[in-house]
Amino acid sequence: FLFHSLQAKMSRPVQARRLEGVDKNIWVEFVKLAATYSKVNLGQGFPDFPPPDFLTEALTRALGGGNHMLHQYTRAFGHPPLVKVLAQFFEKLLGRDLDPMTNVMVTVGAYQALFCCFQALVDEGDEVIIIEPFFDCYEPMVKMAGGTPVFVPLRPNPPKDGKLMSSADWQLDPVELASKFSERTKAIVLNSPNNPLGKVFSRGELGLIAELCVKHDVLCISDEVYEWLVYDGKQHIRIASLQGMWDRTVIIGSAGKTFSTTGWKVGWVVGPDRLLQHLRTVHQNSVYHCATIVQEAVAQGFQRELMLYGKPESYFVQLPKELQQKRDWLVQSLDDVGMKPIIPEGTYFVVADISQFKSDVPDVPNSDEPYDSRFAKWMVKNKGLAAIPLSAFYSEAHKNNYTNFIRFCFAKEEATLKAANDILQKWKHEKTS
Ligand code: PMP
């Protein structure tokens, strides 16, 4: 009896204050919708083709080979073979010496790398500049750390000649960007190539950001998970390699994107020890380390890539080549039906303009939900095609700035992209007949 009455009295708020306003997550909702209704899922960003054989073979070897210690704990901050090869690899990319033990840390996906950054580097009252549109978790992660996100938009400048827009046509206004920096600014989050637009920031744009970081003594959290996925001969430039930036930048990467193994959840950070030492504190007090056996397989994958660096057989050369073809197919499909695509310079996403399809999906005046979100829900339920509304990549205050766009993922088998094309073609004919 006593036990029951005590339970009944449990009426105090159970939720920690830091969770206020961060409880909604668009992926939970859209992944469920896609699972329930989609025939073709171009929503969440993951490949539906297999990872490269050399990687799955490395995992099989790790699993069945003689070293049963690969089933046990490994070093907290990264399995030694993996941090060593990552250090070697990034020495090449950055042109500087790296210590595998202090300049590299392995995380549970890039997601946990981001979480460590915000927890370790952002304090109550700190401001963190986020460039919109952005990978949605930056905002709640800054808030959970007690920081205040400050948003600055990429603004579209459509080409005058009627050509399709490119992700390069979305640009920062230098004056507006500069106006967001103040003595309260602790960090800026940079994501190049950018999810969702596919924008690959140019040397000039990165130079501007770097200059402001140095001037205001601001850190840069550089999310480079799509570093190998750049097209049309574009170059991915690492902001850490610009003057004055190494010391204030944390580079984030993901084996999920790099080797088409999003389910393995292996990520990493590369940066100066003076920053990484604090990320290690968060890591050791939260997850401690991530699965040994997948770290071993990823290490072997990187050893192969190090040997084949820049050669045609390299996966980091082959994957973007294949994806560029897939991008072109999807761009063509979307353009054909009048869902104008913004041609991405990188990543495996295309954002498309749904304006010409609006008549099919009635607007609900004064609704709280942005139009693109309603459109994406209608599309998956009625056409079986899953995509993600662009408004999901904007802060609450700016969700209604761009509501005529949805994002498609093209890291998909040819058959999947063909099936998407069939749905779009059929829809177009229904509209016109
Ligand atoms: N950053 C960006 C920009 C992403 O798009 C993603 C995954 N969609 C992540 C980080 C998270 O990567 P991971 O799956 O390795 O946790």
From TrEMBL:
UniProt entry keywords in alphabetical sequence: Aminotransferase, Lyase, Pyridoxal phosphate, Transferase
Pfam families in alphabetical order: Aminotran_1_2 (PF00155)
Segments forming domain Aminotransferase class I/classII large: 39-420
GO biological process, one term: kynurenine metabolic process
Catalytic activity: L-kynurenine + 2-oxoglutarate = kynurenate + L-glutamate + H2O; an S-substituted L-cysteine + H2O = a thiol + pyruvate + NH4(+)
InterPro entries named in the record: Aminotransferase_I/II_large, Kynurenine-oxoglutarate_AT, PyrdxlP-dep_Trfase, PyrdxlP-dep_Trfase_major, PyrdxlP-dep_Trfase_small
Keyword Transferase assigned: yes
Any single GO CC term annotated in Swiss-Prot or TrEMBL for this entry: mitochondrion
One of the record's GO molecular function terms: pyridoxal phosphate binding
Pathway: Amino-acid degradation; L-kynurenine degradation; kynurenate from L-kynurenine: step 1/2
CC cofactor: pyridoxal 5'-phosphate
Alphabetized SUPFAM superfamilies for the sequence: PLP-dependent transferases
Superkingdom of origin organism: Eukaryota
Protein name, UniProt field: KAT1 transaminase
